[in-house]
Design brief:
Elements lengths: L2 H14 L7 E11 L4 E4 L4 E7 L7 E7 L21 E2 L7 H4 L4 E6 L2 H15 L10 H10 L3 E13 L5 E13 L11 E3 L7
Antiparallel strand pairs: 1-8, 1-9, 2-3, 3-4, 4-5, 6-7, 7-8
Length: 203
């Protein structure tokens, strides 16, 4: 009978098959900043930036972004709420103290390419200013529906350590940033991308 050899052959072929590779890749950026310093790293045609800003208090703080050559931020658009959101601030903002801000790790979605940015941006502007939208009463729903259909990457920002004065002024901080994206997202090879499990879909 040929059944048994055939089954054995099938079992062997299944056993030696290589496991499927993860469908995503990731890079990691580790850097330290003193108050007033900036950081940027090109990851492909996008650049990760941590920039100094000075609120009315006059104390130097930071914001982070992932920008194209025209300065468009690929994080802000896909991480609601679109107003009064402290998630991209590393320092005192919107009622959050600098000490508290630098004790919180972040996870932020980001857009993968200019085409998605250009297609999605009208939904952002309509949601921000619905009175100017073609259908003001549907602007918010249309934003959420379009957001749910996007492929995005995931940025994880971890606060390794921070030094904040008793009166809530930042002296310095160290960060570890991981960017995870589908395997067709072309990270700069100099950053040695690693195979990575894909993050779960955004809720």
């Amino acid at each position: 009978m040929m059944i048994l050899p055939a089954l054995c052959s099938l079992a062997i072929s299944l056993f030696v098959q290589k496991p499927a590779e993860p469908a995503c890749k990731s890079i990691a950026l580790n850097f330290s900043l003193k108050a007033g310093e900036n950081y940027k790293q090109r990851v492909n045609d996008l650049t990760f930036k941590t920039k100094t800003w000075e609120p009315k208090s006059g104390e130097a703080e930071w914001t982070f972004s992932l920008e194209d050559a025209d300065g468009h931020d690929y994080i802000y658009t896909v991480n609601p709420p679109l107003r009064f959101n402290p998630s991209q601030f590393l320092g005192a903002a919107y009622g959050v103290t600098a000490r508290d801000s630098l004790s919180r790790n972040r996870e932020s979605r980001f857009l993968l390419n200019k085409g998605d940015y250009d297609r999605f941006w009208p939904f952002v502007t309509n949601s921000l200013w619905p009175y100017s939208a073609p259908r003001p009463d549907k602007a918010a729903d249309e934003y959420w529906n379009a957001l749910g259909k996007l492929r995005t990457g995931l940025l994880r920002l971890k606060i390794i350590k921070s030094d904040v004065t008793p009166d809530d002024a930042i002296r310095s901080a160290e960060f570890l940033v991981e960017l995870v994206a589908p395997s067709d997202f072309r990270f700069d090879p100099k950053l040695t991308p690693q195979l990575s499990a894909c993050p779960p879909p955004a809720e």
